[in-house]
């Protein structure tokens, strides 16, 4: 038998957090003493280890969904959720590879005698398959800084602006928030180089690797919990 404080102490969380996890269905229901105190067992400890490992691997919401499916012995639902998480990580890795390849192309100097043709907002929006409102939003947060045509005030996107828009589009696909993209693009614009972008992509790579390793750890702890639960059911 374990007390709530025993489970909490192992992970450096509060006893209230343990009770909340049980209430939310992330831990199996605990029995109560005649005086109303919760009685936790090694099964609850294993469930808590699995759930906390699932969070960095799949996120809080999906981690909770996986645990609730485990408590119901809904293995098809549980495994499908895990498969989707792995599929998303693979898509993210493929997107990162695409971004790296595109960045190498986009940041290369244009061939002599073939300068990039300036674009207006409609042309650039069509090129990127985004809306004009998206480009205006990127401008509002500092990602783009197009010149204005004298007389009409129309936006004119030169080669550097087009490069910045392409990079912004790629980084948005990678899940980066606009504020972070603005910082990266402004650093590139100011320094005239792509070191900051390379660091951003390296950071993205580290995050994906960390998530992959978290999935491995979560799989081990979740398997241990499922085995204990199955033994308790006599299956």
Give a short summary of the structure.
With 235 residues, this protein is mainly α. Helix content is 69%, strand content 3%.
Describe the structure.
By secondary structure, this protein is mainly alpha-helical. The protein has helices spanning about 5-10, 15-25, 40-60, 60-70, 75-105, 120-130, 130-140, 160-175, 180-190, 195-235; strands at about 30, 40, 145-150, 155. Helix 5 (about 75-105) runs antiparallel to helix 8, helix 8 (about 160-175) runs antiparallel to helix 9 (about 180-190) and helix 9 runs antiparallel to helix 10. The longest helix is centred in the last third of the chain and has 39 residues, at about 195-235. The protein starts with a helix and ends with a helix.
Fold blueprint:
Layout lengths: L3 H8 L3 H9 L7 E2 L5 E2 L2 H17 L1 H12 L3 H32 L14 H8 L3 H9 L6 E2 L6 E2 L2 H15 L4 H14 L3 H39 L2
Antiparallel strand pairs: 1-2, 3-4
Which blocks of ≥5 consecutive residues have pLDDT under 50? none
Number of E strands: 4
Quaternary structure state of the chains depicted: single chain
Tell me the fraction of residues in β-strands, as a range: under 5%
Shape: elongated
Helix content: 55-70%
Q: Order of strands across the widest beta sheet?
A: 1-2
């Amino acid at each position: 038998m374990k007390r709530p404080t025993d489970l909490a102490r192992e992970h450096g969380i509060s006893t209230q957090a343990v009770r909340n996890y049980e209430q939310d269905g992330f831990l199996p229901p605990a029995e109560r003493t005649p005086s109303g105190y919760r009685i936790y067992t090694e099964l609850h400890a294993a469930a808590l280890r699995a759930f906390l490992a699932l969070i960095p691997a799949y996120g809080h919401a999906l981690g909770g969904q996986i645990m609730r499916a485990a408590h119901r012995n809904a293995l098809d639902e549980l495994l499908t959720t895990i498969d989707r998480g792995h599929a998303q990580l693979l898509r993210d890795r493929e997107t990162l590879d695409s971004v790296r390849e595109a960045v190498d192309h986009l940041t290369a100097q244009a061939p002599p005698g073939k300068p990039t043709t300036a674009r207006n907002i409609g042309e650039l929006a069509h090129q990127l398959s985004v809306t004009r409102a998206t480009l205006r939003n990127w401008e509002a947060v500092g990602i783009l800084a197009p010149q204005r045509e004298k007389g009409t005030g129309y936006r004119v996107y030169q080669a550097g602006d087009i490069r910045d828009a392409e990079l912004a589009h790629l980084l948005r696909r990678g899940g980066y928030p606009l504020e972070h993209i603005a910082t990266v693009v402004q650093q590139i614009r100011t320094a005239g180089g792509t070191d900051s972008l390379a660091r951003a992509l390296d950071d993205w790579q580290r995050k994906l690797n960390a998530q992959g390793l978290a999935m491995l750890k979560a799989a081990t702890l979740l398997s241990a919990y499922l085995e204990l639960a199955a033994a308790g059911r006599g299956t």
